[in-house]
């Protein structure tokens, strides 16, 4: 049909109109092409900026998180070292170094129900002894600012599986033990038997 139309459009007016329409069509096509190119370039720039912003944000956040992790890890390593030294000094009966790891207002809770001692009472009990040995098996630390809660499983040559729990507080830039509680975990299968013996012992 298009060939037929052009074939009959022989007169000047028709030809001029067709030529003008052709030029207009070309101009429109060129304009649309330029517009699409501009939009595509603009879209790429916007996309690149959109990608850059989250990346920069993620890098910034990553630095902050890394800093927080480093601080936390450093604190927990220092606290763990205090607990390691505690076990070492008690095994060596090095009481000066042992009690330097505690706060002055620290509390020690022993395995006997009567053993809730301040530092003066605990030193009075400890210094005449040859010490005690507890080897670390497992430890967990939870930090809340300048406070670290811990629980650890220990193995004692004298008593077997033991558990230490307590709190360390950052004091003058150093981690100090505020409370230490030593206990003997009882397997559920023999809990009633053991507690019955404890009840009987308490009645005597």
Describe this structure in words.
By secondary structure, this protein is an alpha+beta fold. Helices cover about 55% and strands about 25% of the residues. The protein has helices spanning about 1-10, 10-90, 95-100, 120-125, 190-204; strands spanning about 100-110, 115-120, 135-145, 145-155, 160-170, 175-185. It has a six-stranded mixed beta sheet. It is globular and about 95 Å long.
Shape: globular
Task: Round the Cα radius of gyration to an integer and report it.
Answer: 40 Å
Instruction: Tell me the distance between the termini.
Output: 119 Å
State mean pLDDT (0 to 100 scale).
77
Q: Give me the number of helical elements.
A: 5
Give me the side-by-side strand order of the main sheet: 2-1-6-5-4-3
In terms of DSSP E residues, the strand content is 25-35%
Q: Say how many strands there are.
A: 6
> Which residues sit in consecutive blocks of at least 5 with pLDDT less than 50?
1-21, 43-71
Q: Largest sheet, described in full?
A: 6 strands, mixed
Structural class by sheet pairing and helices: alpha+beta
Can you write the helix and strand succession as a string? HHHEEHEEEEH
Helix content: 55-70%
Descriptive terms for the model:
6-stranded mixed sheet, 5 helices, 6 strands, disordered N terminus
Q: Brief description of this entry?
A:
By secondary structure, the protein is of the alpha+beta class. The chain has helices at 2-8, 12-92, 95-100, 119-126, 191-203, and strands spanning 102-109, 116-118, 135-144, 147-156, 160-171, 174-183.
């Amino acid at each position: 049909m298009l060939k037929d139309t052009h074939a009959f459009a022989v007169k000047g007016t028709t030809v001029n109109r067709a030529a003008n329409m052709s030029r207009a069509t070309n101009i429109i096509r060129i304009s649309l092409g330029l517009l699409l190119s501009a939009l595509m370039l603009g879209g790429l720039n916007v996309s690149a900026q959109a990608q850059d912003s989250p990346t920069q944000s993620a890098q910034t956040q990553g630095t902050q998180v890394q800093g927080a992790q480093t601080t936390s890890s450093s604190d927990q390593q220092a606290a763990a070292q205090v607990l390691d030294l505690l076990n070492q000094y008690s095994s060596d009966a090095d009481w000066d170094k042992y009690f330097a790891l505690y706060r002055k207002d620290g509390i020690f809770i022993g395995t006997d129900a009567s053993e809730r001692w301040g530092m003066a009472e605990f030193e009075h009990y400890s210094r005449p002894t040859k010490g005690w040995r507890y080897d670390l098996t497992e430890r967990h630390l939870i930090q809340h600012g300048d406070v670290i809660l811990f629980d650890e499983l220990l193995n004692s040559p004298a008593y077997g599986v033991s558990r230490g729990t307590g709190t360390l507080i950052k004091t003058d830039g150093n981690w100090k033990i505020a409370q230490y509680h030593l206990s003997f975990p009882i397997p559920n299968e023999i809990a009633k038997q053991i507690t019955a013996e404890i009840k009987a012992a308490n009645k005597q």
